């Protein structure tokens, strides 16, 4: 039996039986509560042979209703099911048993295992992944002036640190602008869908953007910055050549900011010189602890 995922994350029809098995144990077990900061695990199903049994498009929706943060990707001859809640060994074992019933051999890979060099990452090397993040509560967010007079929002701790940093930069004749701050699930959904359309697959999109539920921007602690004197470099790699970027590299750490996706980052996400996260408070540092551990930085 061959499992394939549609390039855009839709499941093909013959997977129905597997989904039914999975649904049975998901529904029957209390292990499916999704802790907001559970590390994502990938259940990897290498498939081969000929003949594709396809899944009905509705199956993915069914799966999403059971596990809102699950998504499926097809990478070459490998199907990858990423489910944030696969953090308990018993649920992973059940998943593998269900796959075995269907004659499929699943392998579990987790970013922590890869970060700690425990092996198991071979077949998923190069697959970008994102950590799940909780959406900030309204009460913790405050408005900050953004690019072009827009009002962005940041977590109050990050907002305060950003304003101080911006003033300090101004004193050095550097124009630091806030392009994007907090994003809710619906905004991230729209952005991620647009990225899939542009890049042609969910796999490619994940190098540039996070699926809803997995963006650092949900926390209110992440922000995209630009150089106000070089607007053509906004959200471009060329931002790394601007005076503002050079200034940030030197001074941002003293305000509690760090680059989330430096070149060669452990998440396999493309270098984003404009995207920084605040880790200057215990609360913020705890949110990003897993991501920082998995990063070579
Ligand atoms: Zn960003």
General description of the model:
33% of the residues lie in helices and 16% in strands. It is an alpha+beta fold. The strands form 3 sheets. It has a 4-stranded antiparallel sheet with strand order 2-3-1-4. Helix 1 packs antiparallel against helix 3. The protein is globular, with a radius of gyration of 20 Å. The N terminus is likely disordered. The site of zinc ion has 5 residues, from strand 8. Zinc ion binds next to strand 8.
Roughly what percent helix? 25-40%
- Return residue spans where pLDDT drops below 50 for at least 5 consecutive residues: 1-14, 24-41, 45-60, 62-70, 83-87, 111-125
The total number of structural domains is: 2
Count of extended strands: 10
* CATH-derived topology of the largest domain: Muramoyl-pentapeptide Carboxypeptidase, domain 2
**What is the residue-averaged pLDDT?**
71
Order of helices and strands: HEHEEHEHEEHEHHEHEEHH
- Residue fraction in strands: 15-25%
Distance N terminus to C terminus?
A: 41 Å
Classify the secondary structure makeup into a structural class: alpha+beta
Which CATH architecture of the largest domain is right? 2-Layer Sandwich
